[in-house]
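tool=predict chain=A
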Amino acid sequence: MTALHQPARPEPDGRDATPTGEPTTTNKPTLPRESTIARVRFPVVDEISRHCLQGDEPETVHIEVHLPGRVDHERLRTAFHQALTRHPRILMRQAPVRWWHRRYEWQLTAGPDVDPVAFPPPGPDALVRARQRALTDCPSLESSPPIRLEAIEHPDAADGTVLLLTVNHTALDGPACLRVLATAAELYGGADNSPAPPPVRAPEPRTHRTARPDDSTPAVGHGLTRPSRIAPDTGTPTTSSGANSMDGTNGMLITDLPVPARPPRIDGRAPYTVNDQLLVATCLTVARWNRLHDRPTTPVLVTMPVDDRPRDSEMPIGNGTRLVSVGFGLEERRDADLLSADPPDPGAVALLLRRTATRTRALKSAPGSPLGLSGTVLTAPLLPVGVRGAATRALRTAAAPWTSTTLLSNIGRIPYPLDFADAGRPTAVWFSAPARMPRGLTVTTASVGGRIQLALRWSHALLDDAAGARLGALFASSLAATESLAATEGDAR
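tool=predict ok
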């Protein structure tokens, strides 16, 4: 596992920011500012995110693609610029706005205002510094595009190149930017980077086996019951890197784990998916962590993005996921001691997996808007944006006790080859999502080469870096607890 610590924010050329907080220039060239070719109103997700922006909690998505070989600098820059024009919705900046305006708008541009591609000097700590920038230095909404691509070369040529994208999450999400990178790979290497077809799944049977009493479908909501919070753990006044443990900056841990085994398919249908196992592992991690910190048992509520967009070249670019809540608690309360034990009880975990599979199938098949009715109401242009923003922030503060425990974003199998010719195909791909309070923790996973690429991000107001590393180890053992059921489940069926 790799834990990331954050010193003062470094710049892409390896220099630290000035201690006075004054902005410093980077080595990225500035391009002529392109004229606006169209205006697009902020979608619901973008506007809610824009209302809630805070300077001490950067709203960044981090994407890290490891290639085995070296890339040609100018060839990569050219390919990425051409990819931007193939997906013009990414070439945008926020239009100037005043509090009395009725809406926020994106200005679509003919080309980038600034060059989004940078090549930091190679060095033993170049990747660490780039990861730090991804957590602290958010691309501006006022320049097109709101994304940054850094190509980090290891000092040893055999160690290859890391392509690190930093995305302003108010404008774009991870899957959309991965689609743009796939287009850049195709333009760079000349090979087809079309998405692989999804695995064939057997249709849902018309008749199901008779459910046992403990397989009954539980409700996914919790009514007025407050979801569990991750127990804070900031053992020292400051982190080992010197960052204030009560500030809003993020820490991050990245690692890879084996894809957990599942029981054999019955009539082509698995009893649960890897995504279900990741959800259960998240629930177990929270329950076990809170038990170690003497927190009472309360329901765990996990927010899960669902992305229904196609992955081909026509994929809509922007924030395209809808959020659903997967609840654990009221029905699991009787098994709380078994689930939070070390190790968790296999029978209780097996029951939780079956329940989770039922819940997620229902949630994924049900239609819904990205942020529900409340998001639609809050973004209706009946009042000025300044008034809507104040109302949104006030509601967010008031609703904080009922905010979900954490967010699990499972990107799943990377659908594109991401073939960069001589530089090769990825050996690992990590994503991470911003970890804002009151949740303060996000779990993001992807699957590459039969491994789960896991990224944990946490707010330093909740955890210090040592606690984040311990939480990561607890997640790994919780995921392993779901895998150990595979043989038993298979024999039972």
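Residues 5-27, 204-222, 237-245, 486-493 have pLDDT under 50 and may be disordered. The chain has eleven helices and 15 strands.
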